[in-house]
Amino acid sequence: MEKKALTWTELRVGLVVIASLVILSITILYIGSTGGSPWAATYHVKALMSDVNGLKAGAPVRLGGVEKGTVTKVDFAPEGSGMVEVDMRLDRRVKSRITTQSTVTLGALGLLGEKAVDITPSSKGVPIEDGGLLAGVAEDPFKGLLSDASNSTTHLKKILSRMDAGEGTIGKALRDEELYTRMVDVSLRLQQVMNKLESPSGPLGRLVNDEAMSRQLANSVRGIDSIVTRIDEGKGNLGILSKDEELSQSLKSLTRSMNDIARQLQRGEGSAGKLLNDDALYKRIDGVSMRLDALVTKVEKGEGTAGRFVQDPALYENFNAAAKELRGLLSDVRKDPRKYLRVRLSVF
User: Fold this and answer.
1) Which H or E run contains 69?
2) pLDDT digits 0-9 by tens, 39-68
3) Dist. CA 94–CA 101, nearest whole Å
4) Packing angle, helices 236-243 and 211-233, rounded to 10
5) Range 180-195 burial, b when 16+ CB lie within 10 A, else e
């Protein structure tokens, strides 16, 4: 029987198939390993739980949140205690982190995903040996996940029932026609405001859409910014006031002096303070002012000498003529005093 020769093409195909199988095997071993190399050294630990809540072999084991092993077996404990025994294969490099103080709890890869085992690392206690037993928590925190979701659904149904019955703000908005009408009215007004904003004819619309007004506002803002910058640099009167410590102290001193004066006035010290607080002085001044007012009234009415002098034109003319004659007499006396001054000497 003639043997068929193996061609190079067939040999290459066979080598590729073998390499693919090797790579696939390595990948399967890596996926099923503890998260590291499939040939890494491992060791086994066990945990007893009252309820594993659907935990299966192949579930990941996390140490402090880092995946470091897998679950190899889940079954009832042989002692007949009703507990469930969970066998785990872990990376030997984390052996020192798993001690008698570590605890085992059930975790989840997602809200409703498959389960995982979480081990709390601890630096205290004695490290667990190969095949040792870890302490499991009495209650599974994820066991009531679906029941909590059911409770949430029930609560949501109650809320929807209240809304459907017209209770609460949302329920009233759904059932109360008056409230619905007001909400519609508010929405229409808001729509009108938005229309005004979009329309360039109104002031708000111009403010939003008019580029010239926008530039003017920008210029105004820049002007204000320049003023603030000048003040901050100490330029101008306001800048000097904000930067000059001596002037600031002078203003503070002046303010304190004014406060002292105000306190003195309030206490009734000094003439002004007495005028503000002394009723007797106020009454005397008020009496004097009333008398002056009465005197001025009499003068205006022509009563008395002063009043007649102010109001009587004849008296004024007579007084003016007498003054003129007196001035003429004094003038003649200055010119010829002998005419008016005669001295007689007689000897007895």
Assistant:
1) strand 66-76
2) 568 889 999 888 888 888 888 999 988 888
3) 15
4) 40
5) eeeeeeeeeeeeeeee
Q: Rounded to 5 degrees, what angle do the CA atoms 255, 260, 266 make? A: 125
pLDDT digits (tens, 9 = 90+) for 168-193: 777 776 667 777 778 788 888 888 87
**CA torsion, points 50, 56, 58, 59, in degrees to nearest 10?**
-60
What 8-state DSSP symbol labels residue 92?
G
- For 281: left if phi > 0, alpha if psi spans -120 to 50, otherwise beta; the answer is alpha
Q: Which residues, other chains included, contact 12 with Cβ-Cβ below 8 Å and sequence gap of 6+?
A: none
341 band by pLDDT with thresholds 50, 70 and 90? low
Tokens 């004695």, located at residue: 126
Long-range contacts of 334-341 (CB under 8 A, 24+ apart): none
Residue with tokens 């001193």: 253
Span between the terminal Cα atoms of the chain, in Å = 215
Host H or E run for residue 119: strand 115-119
In angstroms, rounded to a whole number, what is the distance separating the alpha carbons of residues 127 and 101?
9
CA atoms of 91 and 98, how far apart (whole Å): 11
pLDDT at 72: 92
Whole-Å CA distances, 144 to 53, 111, 149: 9, 12, 8
pLDDT at position 4 over 60:
no
